Amino acid sequence: MADERFREVAARAIGIILDLSSRASYRIEVRGLENYTHSPSTLVVFNHRRDDDVPIIANVLFGRRGLFANDVMPLFVTREDLFRRGFLRDYLEGWPPLFREPLALLDLRPVLWALRAYRMRRVAEMTVGEVLEDVLARFGNLPLDQVLKPTWVERFEHMAGRKGGRLYIKQALKSRFFPLLHQGYGLTKLTRRQFQALKPHERAVIESQLQVFVDALERGETVQMAPEGAASRDGRFARIRAGLHVLLNRPRVQVRVLPVAITYDFMTCGRQWAFVNVGPEIPDLRGLPPSETSARVAEAILGQSTITASQLASQMLLAIKSRGGGILTKARLLEHVTEEANRWTKAGLYVDPRLLTREEQVRRLDEYVEYCLRSGELIAREAGGFWVPRALEQVSANYANPGGAIKYINNELTSLTRLLRNVTLNNTS
């Protein structure tokens, strides 16, 4: 009892810090909170855009005056690598080594325990290092050439500077091999024989982790999860993973499914906007085929999306880039955003209210243009407009990449039109 009381106090303290941090970074707008009924055995599902999603949504649902102040604390489905000592050092790759290296000693597990975050293995994203650790624990210190494909054995040997002699797993797990160990999709680097030998172990681990959340739902608790499994790198809504189907069908109680969509309007000056829309519960999912379950959950989540200035204005920029670049006038940008905002409103999607009045729309697009000039999406101001550079194919879609933001945004809109089966749009630009 004392441990649980301490856990609750610690969670509230950490939650308030996370809440203040989120609100310092974002202007948070909430819709549909009345759809959260506080009912037992609720599974909260949301689209995963950034690491900030989890504390923002948790504060919206469970802590209107500080995290968990108003409701029973949920369980969080949490990526497994957060529980590894030194996670922050590996995660913050862009930080200077002087600041990163001390983070190798930091252990997040006490914080995760306080917040009721429980691990969930993401098989596709397991790193080479994580896979080698699993093989070591399961089968012992095998020679690397019995574990990894030849090309990967060669990479380790090249980095080791070895001439002859065999490398073993324990040697390969040394910090000097960090660039290789940190590579994702580690299971694909195994030999076929080693992969087949390890597969039953991986399945058993995942089953035991899922059972933690099944038990919680059977006790009437709330679980919060991102069914995509990982934050979107390119703006697309990813394939829903099999764990969702398990959590809907294995518990011996009826599970309520609450869809939440979070949308960031990030191409702006100053604080970004985060729109959190809570939809009505999704009925009658139990017993459906996995493909139908995934389609209905994806549609329910994306149906709560917010259409933003970043999306609609970037749609115009991308069209001009694809034609080889050119001049974009402010009047044409305003016209396009107005037309598209009205189109999405008629289709039943929620549109940022700032795009529905001319004064607010002009102010918002001025911020958007300033952001694009700073980031390189626009080259410079021209008489009567702005010069849009040609498309740069080598730039990947990523909201944090200069030149990649509008591709990321376009992928968001593409996901909406592809997955919302009841929405029909004829986009123009």
How would you portray this structure in words?
- The protein has 16 helices and twelve strands.
- It is of the alpha/beta class and 429 residues long.
- It has three domains: 2-74 and 221-302, no CATH class; 125-195, no CATH class; 306-419, no CATH class.
- The chain has a seven-stranded mixed β-sheet with strand order 1-7-6-2-5-3-4, sandwiched between helices. The protein has a three-stranded antiparallel β-sheet with strand order 9-12-11. A two-stranded parallel sheet has the order 8-10.
- The chain starts with a helix and ends in a 10-residue tail after the last helix.
Short structural description:
The chain is of the alpha/beta class and 429 residues long. The chain has helices at residues 2-25, 53-62, 87-91, 97-100, 109-114, 128-139, 150-160, 169-172, 178-181, 192-218, 243-249, 290-302, 309-322, 330-346, 358-375, 405-419; strands at residues 26-31, 42-46, 75-79, 117-120, 223-225, 256-265, 272-278, 306-307, 326-329, 350-351, 380-382, 385-388.
Number of strands: 12
Overall 3D geometry? globular
Largest beta-sheet characterization: 7 strands, mixed
Distance between the termini: 61 Å
Mean pLDDT over the residues: 87
Number of helices: 16
String of helices and strands = HEEHEHHHEHHHHHEHEEHEHEHEHEEH
Number of domains: 3
> Strands across the major sheet, in which order?
1-7-6-2-5-3-4
Uncertain runs with pLDDT below 50, 5 residues or more? Answer: none
Radius of gyration: 24 Å
How much of the polypeptide forms β-strand, as a percent range?
Answer: 5-15%
What structural class do you assign from the helix and strand content? alpha/beta
Helix content: 40-55%
